[in-house]
Specification:
- This protein is an alpha/beta fold.
- The chain folds into two domains: 122 residues, 3-Layer(aba) Sandwich (Rossmann fold); 100 residues, Arc Repressor Mutant, subunit A (Orthogonal Bundle), CATH 1.10.10.
- The chain has eight helices and twelve strands.
- The strands form three sheets. It has a five-stranded parallel sheet with strand order 2-1-3-4-5, with helices on both faces. A four-stranded antiparallel sheet has the order 6-7-8-9, with no helix packed on it. It has a three-stranded antiparallel sheet with strand order 10-12-11.
- It is elongated.
Length: 228
């Protein structure tokens, strides 16, 4: 079996060497860069299974890189490593396409668990919808993160698209909040619960042009996505 490939971007070289060697000892194949300069070229050549990006990087920061990577690949898992503690910074990371984040300093065991969880969820998603989907008056294209109404196209963030895809899978049925949070973030923490509320509100706003589409809250359980 071929090794799982990790693209790891870290400008603290001493930390980077420790993390790289630890991951390699767990049978991962790790390519490490120390700035944002050649990340896109390396990504295209390597086609990694997962990316780990430090947020504060020379040349290009991790948020910028994640946005560029998402233009090339909408599904590869991305983990941010950040010393930042502000909620706005974490939300920005999710908005640019990140799947998870770890605050520095972190334990290597925690990083490895996060990597395995994301790779597991990524594998499970292979059966999810990718072709354009009619949603009442809308056409949703999950592979391009687009929601189209007549001649108007709205670009969705990675997180918005992931949420809408999950709701579509459970169309006219109930999906629990826990299931959604595990799919989108890999855990059902209070922080992610608040994030979910924000994204549900956004999707409701985007879809309000068609009254036949409803995201109904099932109190204490989850949501039912209704398309008339």
């Amino acid at each position: 079996m071929s090794k799982l490939k990790i693209l790891y971007i870290e400008d603290e070289q001493s930390l980077g060497r420790i993390v790289k060697e630890s991951l390699e000892s767990r049978d991962f194949e790790v390519t490490m860069l120390t700035d944002g300069k050649d990340v896109i070229t390396t990504f295209e050549k390597l086609q990694p299974d997962i990316c780990i990006l430090d947020v504060m990087l020379p040349v290009k920061d991790g948020f910028t890189l994640a946005g560029e990577l998402r233009q090339l690949n909408t599904s590869v898992p991305i983990i941010f490593l950040t010393a930042k503690t502000q909620t706005d910074d974490v939300v920005k990371g999710f908005e640019t396409g990140g799947n998870d984040y770890i605050r520095k300093p972190f334990s290597l065991e925690e990083l490895i668990v996060r990597i395995k969880n994301l790779l597991q969820f990524s594998t499970q998603k292979h059966g999810t919808v990718q072709s354009p989907v009619p949603l009442g008056k809308f056409i949703y294209s999950p592979s391009h993160y687009e929601l189209k109404l007549n001649d108007t196209v709205r670009k969705l963030s990675h997180r918005e698209a992931s949420l809408l895809s999950a709701l579509i899978e459970y169309r006219n049925a109930t999906i629990t909040r826990k299931e959604i949070m595990l799919r989108l973030w890999g855990d059902d923490s209070v922080f992610n619960s608040r994030n979910l509320d924000v994204y549900i509100t956004k999707l409701r706003d985007y879809l309000k042009a068609d009254p036949a589409i409803e995201i109904i809250t099932i109190k204490g359980i989850g949501y039912r996505f209704m398309v008339g």
